[in-house]
Amino acid sequence: MDNYDTENEEERREEIGKALEWLRKELLDMRALDEVLARKLITLKYEIRQIKLQKSCDEHQDMLDDVREEYETQQTRHRIPGVTDACMPHLTINSTPLGQVGVTRMNLSARRFSCC
Predict the structure, then answer these.
(1) What pLDDT, on the 0 to 100 scale, is given for residue 116?
(2) How many CB atoms are located within 10 Å of the residue 77 CB?
(3) For a 10 Å CB count at each end of the chain, is N or C smaller?
């Protein structure tokens, strides 16, 4: 019976060894897949950050364009005889998005706007 127990034990060890080898292989495959997914998530996070930054830059540029347009309109209006602020009340600096937060012709040069 000792011989039978020894063979049985050898078979069990062999099966356990095969099971452990299969587990190692599965863990290595999972680790590789994990790394691929982590890289994809990092790439997506970077792309989302870039899109948000570009959107913010575009919004700031639009606001600056509005202020520039308003300023040019006011400069043009002052050059036309007979045109006063009372004639065109909708073109005051406060009607622009930046004018609503306090950016006027006087303090525009003191503020710095950046897209990045």
Answers:
(1) 47
(2) 14
(3) N
Give percent above pLDDT 70 in the chain. 65
Give the pLDDT confidence of 49-105 residue by residue, as tens digits. 999 999 999 999 999 998 888 888 888 776 666 555 555 554 454 556 666 666 665
Task: Give the span between the Cα atoms of 70 and 88, in whole angstroms.
Answer: 12
With helix as H, strand as E and coil as C, how does the chain read? CHHHHHHHHHHHHHHHHHHHHHHHHHHHHHHHHHHHHHHHHHHHHHHHHHHHHHHHHHHHHHHHHHHHHHHHHHHHHHHCCCCCCCCCHHHCHHHCHHHHCCCCHHHHCCCCCCCC
Distances (CA, A) of 14 to 11, 21, 64: 5, 10, 75
Give the amino acid at 34: D
Exposed, middle or buried by CB within 10 Å (0-12, 13-18, 19+), for 64? middle
